[in-house]
Design a protein that fits this description.
The protein has about 400 residues and is an alpha/beta fold. The chain has one domain: Alpha/Beta hydrolase fold, catalytic domain (Rossmann fold), CATH 3.40.50.1820. The protein has 11 helices and 12 strands. α2 links the parallel β9 and β10. α1 crosses α2 and α3 packs antiparallel against α4. The longest helix has 17 residues. It is globular, with a radius of gyration of 20 Å.
């Protein structure tokens, strides 16, 4: 077993060519289901999609207490739980799911699956194609609608006719909106954080810059870098992409108050030393390279760029007009990636939206990962709406 897969996440040595979970690695708390062939929106056919998912709590007798958590771009199915064998990092919403938590697993059956195109057990570019080799550059372009189709099949497999609540931030929020527009009878209430109904030109530009950084890395090899030795993969390009993204996830004021012009080393930057903020971004770049996959980063970033809820539905407002079930729309007041105007449009156009709620945070887009108490209150509100609907 490669050292990078021993738990927990290790920073020793060079980054692996891919931080993806692969067949033969420790399973951890993952469950798996094979969903059979899927033809994606782009027209290409995947002969079998395997999905890695996790559950917490118990499904009740009438199967009415199921809640789906839709993870963001670099998240996965490990919503809650310790780092350990099979899971390089701990849960990304540890405080929010469990006995007595806002998503109380004494009452609710909580499900989260790694998305199509992911790198933590669900079929994606790092998975084996029918010839036994990783899909790599052959993996098709996927859309948010494709991700939701896989999630719909998971619900069918679990015999869940409708989710009491479906919630998610960022890319997860896009999937909640797609579910509620395409399968309105199957979501009794929705909760979204820091997302949009149509990705903007500015956001597409930021995504394009990140993808270009990865694709220009000599170690990317057109997407076929699996099997390269540690340090030879596209970790430099993905590191640049992560640095760009992380700045959009946080705020200018936080970066200035937290780091300012502080030095990281005794050596002055003029003499080859570094600023503290540079070291911080370098750390996040290195961390992602050791737990994620560059092709997955591209696939899911491209899926976000392609997202427009209104495409094929008469425009964005018409598509939002389909959402009549209760929807709690949360914007983050300091979010510079998905600004409040985008959540305001959703709140105004969706008949089921209960106004625009504000999560106050100095941490920007990442507020949904940091402000547990506020997120918990919005979950309470959404669950209450679900009981009424």
């Amino acid at each position: 077993m490669p050292a990078s897969y021993a738990s927990p996440l290790s920073y020793d040595g060079l980054p692996p060519a891919s931080g993806a979970w692969r067949e033969g690695d420790p399973v951890g708390e993952r469950l798996f289901v094979d969903l059979g062939p899927i033809t994606v929106v782009a027209g290409e056919r995947l002969p079998n999609v395997r999905v890695a998912y996790q559950t917490w709590g118990r499904l009740n007798a009438d199967r009415s207490n199921a809640v789906y958590v839709a993870h963001a771009l670099t998240g996965d199915s490990h919503v809650t739980g310790a780092a350990g064998s099979g899971h390089l990092t701990g849960g990304w919403w540890n405080a929010l799911v469990g006995p007595g938590a806002p998503l109380d697993t004494n009452e609710w059956f909580v499900v989260c699956a790694n998305v199509l195109g992911g790198c933590q057990g669900t079929t994606g570019p790092s998975s084996a194609a029918p010839d036994g080799q990783p899909w790599g550059s052959r993996f098709p372009v996927v859309t948010v609608a494709d991700l939701v189709e896989v999630e719909r099949r998971i619900a069918d497999y679990l015999d869940i006719d409708s989710w009491a609540l479906m919630l998610g931030p960022s890319l997860g929020g896009m999937r909640v909106l797609e579910w509620m527009a395409e399968h309105p009878e199957r979501v009794r209430a929705g909760l979204i954080f820091g997302t949009t109904a149509a990705v903007s030109g500015d956001q597409i530009g930021t995504h394009h810059t990140q993808i270009a950084a990865i694709e220009s890395d000599v170690g990317f090899r057109g997407g076929d870098y699996y099997g390269l030795p540690d340090g030879a993969g596209p970790h430099r390009g993905m590191g640049v992409a992560r640095r760009i993204a992380h700045l959009t996830y946080r705020t200018e004021s936080e970066m200035d108050l937290r780091f300012g012009r502080a030095r990281q080393t005794d050596l002055e930057p003029l003499e080859g030393g570094s600023f503290a903020v540079e070291s911080y971004l370098d750390h996040h770049a290195d961390k992602l390279a050791r737990r994620f996959d560059a092709n997955t980063y591209i696939a899911l970033t491209r899926a976000m760029s392609l997202f427009d809820l209104g495409e094929g539905r008469g425009g964005t407002e018409a598509a939002l007009g389909r959402i009549e079930r209760p929807l709690i729309v949360v914007g983050i007041d300091s979010d510079r990636l998905f600004p409040l105007r985008q959540q305001r449009l959703i709140a105004e156009a969706a008949p089921g939206a209960q106004g625009l709620s504000i999560l106050a945070s100095p941490y920007g887009h990442d507020g949904f990962l940091v402000e547990d108490a506020q997120v918990g209150r919005f979950i309470d509100q959404a669950l209450a709406a679900s009981r009424i609907s």
